[in-house]
Amino acid sequence: MAYARVTSVVFPAQDVAEGERILLELNDIADQQEGHILGMVLRSVVNPLQYLRISLWQDRRFADHVSTTDHVVALRARLNLLTIDGHHREDSFEFVGDLARLRVNLPPTMGSEAR
């Protein structure tokens, strides 16, 4: 069953650039792993210090495997240090419905902007 990891963080203003860089690097690493389906990093339009990272996997085994590599553990530790106390949350979810119906419909002009 498809499995998602969701990370929500809020950074102090002075650490936003580094925090965003780490989230994007974690996303890039996931993109290269077997079993990874989709990943994205989102910034809140209400609070530009808040970010959400969503990573969708074929199943939990794939997600667990990549999360234990030394480089990912180091990046996540750095992310924890940058996050405002009490504003780092990680959750896991199972995909509901038919994964075959998952679509990404980006206009051709958005393909490079979306990354």
Descriptive overview:
The protein is an alpha+beta fold and 115 residues long. It has one domain (3-96): Alpha-Beta Plaits. Helices cover 32% and strands 27% of the residues. The chain is built from three helices and four strands, in the order βαββααβ. A four-stranded antiparallel β-sheet has the order 2-3-1-4. Helix 1 runs antiparallel to helix 3 (70-82). The longest helix is centred in the N-terminal third of the chain and has 16 residues, at 16-31. The radius of gyration is 14 Å and the shape is globular. The two termini are 26 Å apart.
Q: Which keywords apply here?
A:
4-stranded antiparallel sheet; Alpha-Beta Plaits; alpha+beta; 115 residues
In short:
With 115 residues, the chain is of the alpha+beta class. It contains 3 helices and 4 strands, in the order βαββααβ.
Report the portion of residues in β strands: 25-35%
How many individual domains?
A: 1
Output mean pLDDT.
90
Shape annotation: globular
User: What is the total tally of β strands?
Assistant: 4
Distance between the terminal alpha carbons, to the nearest Å?
26 Å
Largest sheet: 4 strands, antiparallel
Regions with pLDDT < 50 over 5+ consecutive residues? none
